[in-house]
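From the methods appendix. Each design record in this collection lists the tokenized structure first, followed by the designed amino acid sequence. Records were kept in a plain field format so they could be parsed without special tools. The example shown here is representative of the layout used throughout.

RECORD:
FOLD TOKENS (309 positions):
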């Protein structure tokens, strides 16, 4: 009988994970003016985030890969991965970006399961406003080649004036995926992040039209969005900006790695109940410190690796 292993992939926008001593250097005045940015609050935030990921692990199993958004640098990732809840399981990949808010992406990976082959960044248009880069890693998981991309596309603030930046970054990501497919026939693709777009947007539909050498990409979060599953909220509107997109060779029943499930981890432990129902228990509401986890719920996908050893 063939051996098989279930592996979990998670993405979590962790809402402004800053070192407390770094906030004064930010160019974003709204973040600089927030109170309760001291060492205690920072350690409390780390404890909240590590307990959220452990809560998921206790229910489903520890993820092999965790993409993060809104981390301010390698120091906070070092502090996070050293939390007792992680038991030394994770290493991380991070590069500083040109984002004015110092809000980077990162990838945590289980170093007992994952072998990193190479890492690189996808940057925006050099002549445009600085923005967050897309982190890419080519790796082996159970001996299978996978390209992982972690992104946090520009926001919809200020009347969605950065929509064109999101489009440019996704076009660049398509080209990176083409390069990977050309060099790795049969390789797998995982794109996870905060797209600042719902799954049914025109931009997402354009991205999902990708096809190269008979490889396409599929978004399992479209079905979740249609079922009104949300990872974040804006006023009364539910949003599913956080998504995990996979190459279609994860969906072949005869493949060596098969998609089995995806969902939003909207645990009541990570939520608070208000007039508008359950919402993520956030760290800040404007400049007011609440002490919660994040203004996003984590999202996840499960993959079954066949013939694993």
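DESIGN:
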């Amino acid at each position: 009988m063939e051996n098989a292993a279930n592996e979990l992939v998670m993405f979590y926008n962790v809402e402004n994970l800053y070192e407390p001593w770094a906030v004064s250097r930010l160019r974003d005045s709204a973040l600089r003016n927030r109170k309760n940015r001291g060492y205690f609050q920072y350690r409390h935030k780390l404890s909240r985030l590590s307990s959220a990921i452990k809560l998921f692990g206790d229910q489903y199993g520890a993820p092999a890969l965790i993409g993060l958004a809104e981390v301010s640098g390698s120091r906070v990732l070092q502090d996070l991965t050293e939390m007792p809840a992680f038991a030394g399981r994770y290493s991380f990949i991070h590069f500083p970006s040109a984002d004015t808010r110092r809000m980077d992406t990162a990838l945590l990976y289980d170093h007992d399961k994952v072998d990193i082959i190479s890492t690189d960044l996808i940057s925006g248009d050099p002549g445009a406003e600085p923005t967050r880069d897309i982190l890419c890693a080519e790796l082996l998981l159970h001996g299978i080649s996978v390209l992982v991309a972690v992104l946090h596309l520009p926001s919809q603030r200020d009347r969605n004036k950065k929509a064109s930046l999101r489009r440019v970054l996704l076009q660049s990501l398509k080209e990176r995926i083409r390069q990977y497919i050309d060099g790795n026939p049969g390789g797998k693709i995982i794109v996870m992040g905060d797209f600042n777009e719902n799954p049914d947007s025109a931009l997402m539909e354009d991205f999902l039209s990708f096809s190269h050498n008979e490889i396409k990409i599929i978004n399992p979060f479209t079905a979740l969005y249609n079922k009104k599953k949300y990872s974040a909220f804006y006023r009364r509107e539910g949003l599913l900006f956080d998504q995990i997109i996979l190459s279609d060779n994860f969906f072949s029943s005869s493949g060596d790695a098969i998609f089995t499930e995806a969902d939003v981890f909207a645990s009541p432990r990570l939520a608070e109940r208000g007039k508008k129902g359950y919402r993520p228990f956030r760290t800040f509401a404007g400049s007011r410190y609440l002490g919660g986890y994040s203004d996003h719920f984590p999202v996840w996908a499960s993959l079954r690796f066949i013939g694993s050893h």
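APPENDIX NOTE: The longest strand covers residues 4-17.
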